[in-house]
Write a sequence for this structure.
């Protein structure tokens, strides 16, 4: 048996719901925003992480812009060539193939290689440490190892290991969000290659000072410059730099580097697109 | 007794060296003259490796309007010009000079005192500029720029800052006691630049009765008013000092001359006297070497460019328990990571400290007790700024007056949770700066 007390409650709330439902129905008809169904489809294809690597604030805005302009040069660096192909298929256009990019650390100053200058006990953040002095390591161009960049990585690809930032190549999508978060600038974005050689040192100090501060420092000794058959290595501001367009990854320079720990490193990238869940 | 109206704290004074006369530090074998000892752009080095320099010779040229000349502290030979650690916590281009021990002045400098009253306003400012004088209290703002305010601003109050509210430091105190005449003459020179329309004051904290007495004696008949101030930190901060003496408040974004005030440090006044009357550029300064871990704490007059390591050796070396070396006072000074840093124009003291709290103090969360709000002399809410910095909400931090913080350290001192509030605020300022640079780039 239903108590009589329920009747006013049920009728009042029921009629209220009915009236509001009618209002919502008319409002949704009146203010209906026509959305291109294509945007929804493109949105479904995009990774949906809103990393900003495409220069748009979100994947949705990228999708809207792509559908509106059908600009074939618009690329999603995170998705890579596979995604570009899918996008092109949906839109019926030929998309430009994005060059896969990855992040590299141009510093090998971990606790074994780099010498410490002082014990830092303040706020554990690179920018905070820079307020006190030029970082806990003697080399002031090095990775400070306090991990300010980690918070900026949407893909969980960064971690600190032995006082140095390490990038998980499988997870890094090359979005570049971490680059401005580094006060010393040891994070650089490079094009992916099956074998990529680069100088993992950021020290602009003179050779002797670099050597004193770190075993893996580039002293600008010029040995690699002389041995390179492609003339792909130049010395700029007391540090060697490899011009990636010229480099054929022959590996001659790796043989001659006199540093205790080679300042020239060979990284092997997987040149394929990354699946983003 | 006068004091500023909002906030303030009473840290232990620890003025160990208050009664110790200033001693001249012997010349070290090598001096490191930094090109950025002032606010603004670093000076451009004028000398090359191997060149002979004389004492007082200009070795760095001011680069731009807000910049200052730099001079050799002694005669010798330039050993190298390179980037070396700087007590400001970074590296800076410096000229390293091997001293020849003769300490001979360059021609035309260090002359017998002349009467400044015959000089024109322009020539006085020119002399101050040539001598490379900057504010010697800590910030290092070029004095010649400070002394030529925009023509639409009228200066009616000139304050000489003898508060020296930082614990341990006694350099200004000793200068006031020992060189009272020079301080007064320096202040008279500054006052003369404003055609007698400005009233000169000297503000001194009441914990230095001998300095107040010496200044009162020297100031007799000059129209300079000696103001005795309550002993409270940060009495010597520019904005607080103005508030204590004149009752005026410098609002956010304003400079002292917007309220008709001009504040100079005691050391700057002496340097101005030396430059104008004796043609002596700023090549040495008085500083306090103190702290519990140095065997003989004292006040010294050191050549600018003397390394901290030589000063530590002169003062009988630091004990093994030292775990922190600070330039400036303990409230606002900076920890150093090497003793190879040199004395600069703004080094008011070097402290050797065994801070046992360093190992044990770890930040805890804010308990909303509000002590930092009571202590803040800028009427900010430091706990809030700290939280915003911690979570990188920079826009909010700016909204709550990030730029208004003078980093005096009162909030960190009183915080029962040991939060590093000033460090968080400095961190937020650094991030805001970085963001601005990225936007303009």
């Amino acid at each position: 048996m239903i108590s009589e007390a329920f009747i006013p409650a049920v009728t009042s709330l029921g009629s209220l719901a009915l009236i509001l439902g009618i209002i919502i129905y008319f409002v949704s008809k009146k203010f209906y925003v026509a959305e291109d169904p294509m945007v929804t489809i493109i949105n479904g294809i995009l990774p949906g992480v809103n990393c900003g690597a495409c220069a748009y604030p979100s994947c949705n805005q990228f999708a809207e812009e792509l559908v509106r302009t059908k600009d074939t040069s618009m690329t999603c660096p995170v998705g890579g060539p596979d995604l570009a192909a899918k996008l092109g298929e949906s839109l019926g256009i030929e998309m430009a193939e994005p060059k896969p990019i990855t992040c590299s650390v141009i510093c090998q100053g971990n606790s074994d290689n780099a010498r410490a200058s002082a014990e830092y006990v303040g706020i554990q953040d690179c920018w905070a440490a820079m307020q006190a002095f030029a970082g806990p390591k003697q080399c002031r161009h090095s990775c400070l190892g306090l991990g300010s960049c980690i918070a900026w990585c949407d893909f969980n690809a960064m971690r600190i290991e032995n006082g140095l930032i390490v990038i998980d190549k499988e997870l890094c999508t090359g979005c570049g969000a971490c680059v401005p978060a580094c006060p010393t600038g040891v994070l650089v974005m490079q094009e992916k290659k099956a074998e990529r050689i680069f100088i993992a040192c950021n020290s602009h100090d003179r050779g002797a000072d670099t050597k004193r501060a770190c075993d893996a420092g580039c002293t600008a000794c010029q040995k690699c410059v002389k041995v390179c058959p492609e003339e792909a290595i130049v010395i700029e501001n007391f540090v060697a730099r490899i011009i990636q367009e010229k480099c054929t990854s022959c590996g001659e320079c790796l043989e001659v580097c006199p540093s205790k720990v080679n300042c020239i490193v060979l990284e092997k990238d997987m040149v394929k697109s990354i699946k983003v869940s | 007794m006068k004091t500023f109206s909002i906030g303030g704290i009473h840290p232990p004074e620890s003025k160990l060296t208050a009664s110790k006369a200033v001693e001249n530090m012997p010349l070290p074998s090598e001096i490191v003259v930094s090109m950025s000892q002032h606010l603004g752009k670093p000076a451009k080095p004028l000398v090359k490796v191997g060149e002979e320099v004389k004492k007082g010779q200009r070795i760095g040229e001011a680069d731009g309007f807000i910049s200052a000349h730099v001079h050799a502290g002694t005669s010798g030979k330039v050993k190298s010009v390179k980037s070396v650690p700087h007590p400001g916590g970074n590296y800076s281009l410096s000229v390293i000079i091997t001293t020849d021990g003769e300490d001979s002045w360059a021609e035309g400098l260090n002359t017998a005192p002349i009467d400044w009253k015959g000089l024109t306003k322009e020539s006085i400012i020119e002399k101050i500029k040539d001598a490379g004088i900057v504010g010697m209290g800590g910030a290092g703002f070029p004095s010649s720029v400070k002394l030529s305010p925009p023509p639409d601003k009228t200066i009616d109050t000139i304050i000489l800052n003898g508060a020296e509210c930082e614990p341990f430091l006694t350099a200004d105190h000793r200068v006031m006691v020992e060189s009272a005449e020079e301080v007064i003459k320096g202040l008279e020179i500054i006052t003369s630049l404003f055609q007698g329309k400005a009233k000169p004051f000297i503000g001194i904290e009441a914990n230095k009765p001998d300095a107040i007495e010496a200044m009162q004696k020297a100031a007799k008949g000059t129209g300079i008013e000696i103001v005795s101030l309550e002993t409270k930190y940060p009495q010597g901060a520019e904005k607080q000092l103005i508030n204590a003496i004149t009752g005026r408040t410098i609002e956010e974004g304003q400079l002292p001359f917007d309220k008709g005030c001009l504040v100079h440090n005691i050391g700057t006044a002496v340097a101005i006297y030396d430059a104008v009357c004796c043609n002596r550029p700023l090549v040495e300064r008085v500083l306090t070497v103190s702290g519990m871990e140095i065997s003989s704490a004292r006040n010294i007059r050191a050549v600018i460019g003397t390394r901290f390591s030589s000063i530590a050796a002169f003062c009988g070396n630091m004990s093994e328990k030292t775990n922190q070396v600070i330039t400036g006072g303990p409230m606002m000074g900076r920890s150093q990571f090497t003793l190879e840093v040199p004395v600069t124009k703004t080094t008011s003291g070097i402290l050797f400290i065994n801070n046992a709290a360093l190992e044990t103090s770890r930040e805890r969360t804010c308990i909303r007790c509000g002590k930092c709000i009571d202590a803040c002399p800028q009427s900010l809410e430091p706990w809030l700024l700290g939280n915003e910095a911690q979570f990188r909400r920079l826009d909010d931090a700016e909204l709550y007056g990030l730029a208004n913080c003078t980093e005096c350290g009162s909030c960190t001192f009183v915080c029962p949770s040991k939060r590093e509030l000033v460090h968080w605020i400095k961190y937020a300022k650094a991030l805001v700066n970085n963001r601005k640079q990225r936007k303009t780039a």
User: Anything to note?
Assistant: The radius of gyration of chain B is 21 Å. Chain B touches chain A at residues 82-83, 85, 89-91, 334-338, 358-359, 363, 392, 420, 423-424, 426-427, 430-431, 434, 438 (CB under 8 Å).
